[in-house]
Specification:
By secondary structure, this protein is of the alpha/beta class. It contains 18 helices and nine strands. The longest helix has 31 residues.
Length: 438
């Protein structure tokens, strides 16, 4: 069987995906038989109670996860951006430009926060680097402006420790801004220390008729300049800076898609503290940002993978072939479920089991061999313990890649995940060598 045979097409963890994987993969059919057999063994052997104890021990360890996340969150240079503007004023486009995620993900990511606000955390709610709060209902004559202001004030009153900034988003040809000005003025009066940036959007809507693309930035068209000056005058005394942008979709045909992104970045950097400003620059370096986010989440995950690996070694050292396999399986499924939560994915136990089966199918034969070696007194148990610790570590590393792809809106790459697991396993074997002798 080739590595590619073992590597299934990975997708989001759903029960349907898990069922399809079991039906289509010879490796997983064998795995199903193995799981059934070991489940029967737990009914006959005292290991059943041990299995339940282990699973319960790790299920309550969500407190440890929360502590790890809280410590890392306190060290993150998180920026909270309050987006204030009418619908279709380009607020979601700003989120796309700053995060690099697709419009679909942003649409799914915003969740109701209060009656008139929605919130989206990037890259996840647990470890956010950017938190966007979007106002809804502005420009609707049926909405009470004072109620919207009260909700925003209530949100700002909550101490978060994060840097905050107000982003007033206005289309360049929309001069009905009285409500927006009223809200911004009230917020600045109560929170003068929170910087405010006026973001004027949709520039192409006032380009000369014969213009088919963006000019060199900044645009030097009379229509744009006149409207921009009028906007600046309308919000004089309220905003600290103003910037022109035009963030479109690829199908609109404008190049670049995020016109004025560098100007927006620099304006934000001038208004934010140094750490948060540096984070904004790093986020806009997409390749570097991907590496840094991956490292951030991987470091957090490793703090939790390690105790699972050590516990796996302890269980695998029991000198009774196959008796502890169900316990180890439950342990590893529990680990994958918690890692999913770390990456902002809600994973049921059955879905976590499907993920384990999908990304670790190629190690099944080795797992059986590890159990058979226990027939060698003493030496066999030590080898099994070292192997189990390394395998659990490698499984955790592979799960991080899998969930990291999902968090970034990408389809998991089975070959890359298998390669990561193989490399992690080889490194972990050296790390956990002789673990039972320590």
């Amino acid at each position: 069987m080739t590595e590619q045979d073992d590597s299934q097409q990975l997708s989001e963890p759903t029960d349907a995906t898990t069922t399809k994987s079991v039906d289509d993969s010879w490796t997983n059919r064998i795995g199903g038989v193995w799981n059934k057999a070991t489940t029967r063994l737990t009914k006959l052997l005292p290991v059943e109670q041990l299995a339940q104890t282990v699973v319960e021990w790790f299920s309550v360890s969500e407190t440890q996860v929360a502590e790890i996340l809280e410590k890392i969150r306190a060290e993150l240079p998180t920026t909270e951006a309050l987006l204030i503007g009418k619908p279709q004023a380009g607020k979601s486009s700003i989120v796309r430009g700053l995060t690099g995620v697709s419009a679909e993900i942003i649409g799914q990511g915003f969740r109701p926060h209060t009656q008139h606000t929605q919130r989206y955390a990037y890259p996840s709610n647990d470890l956010p680097l950017l938190v966007f709060t979007d106002t809804v209902g502005l420009g609707d004559v049926n909405q009470d402006t004072q109620t919207i202001i009260q909700e925003l004030v209530g949100d700002l009153e909550k101490e978060t420790g994060s840097a905050r900034i107000l982003l007033l988003t206005v289309k360049i040809n929309d001069f009905a801004t009285d409500t927006l000005r009223q809200i911004a003025q009230k917020l600045r009066q109560q929170y003068p220390n929170i910087p405010c940036l006026l973001v004027v959007t949709c520039l192409h809507e006032v380009y000369p008729a014969d213009t088919v693309n963006h000019p060199a930035y900044p645009p030097d068209y009379e229509e744009v300049n006149r409207a921009f000056v009028a906007m600046q005058q309308a919000f004089a005394g309220i905003t600290d800076r103003s910037v022109l942008i035009d963030f479109t979709l690829e199908e609109d045909g404008y190049d670049p898609v995020f016109y004025g992104l560098e100007a927006l970045r620099d304006s934000l950097a001038e208004l934010l503290p140094q750490a948060e400003a540096q984070a904004i620059y790093q986020l806009l370096d997409r390749e570097e940002a991907g590496k840094q986010l991956g490292n951030l989440y991987r470091d957090a995950a490793r703090r939790y993978i390690l105790p699972f690996a050590i516990m796996s070694a302890t269980l695998a050292a029991v000198p009774l072939p196959f008796a502890t396999m169900p316990v180890l399986t439950a342990l590893q499924v529990s680990m994958v479920g918690i890692l999913g939560k770390l990456y902002g994915q809600t994973v049921t136990p059955s879905q976590a089991g499907g993920v384990v089966s999908a990304i670790a199918g190629g190690f099944l034969a080795q797992a059986i061999a590890r159990e058979l070696i226990k027939f060698i007194p003493g030496f066999g148990s030590a080898i099994a313990a070292s192997w189990a610790a390394a395998y659990t570590w490698a499984l955790g590393e592979a799960a991080c890649v899998y969930f990291g792809d999902l968090m970034g809106g990408k389809k998991p790459d089975p070959q890359r995940i298998q390669l990561v697991m193989q490399e992690a396993f080889q490194a972990a074997q050296e790390r956990f060598k002789g673990i039972r002798n320590s």
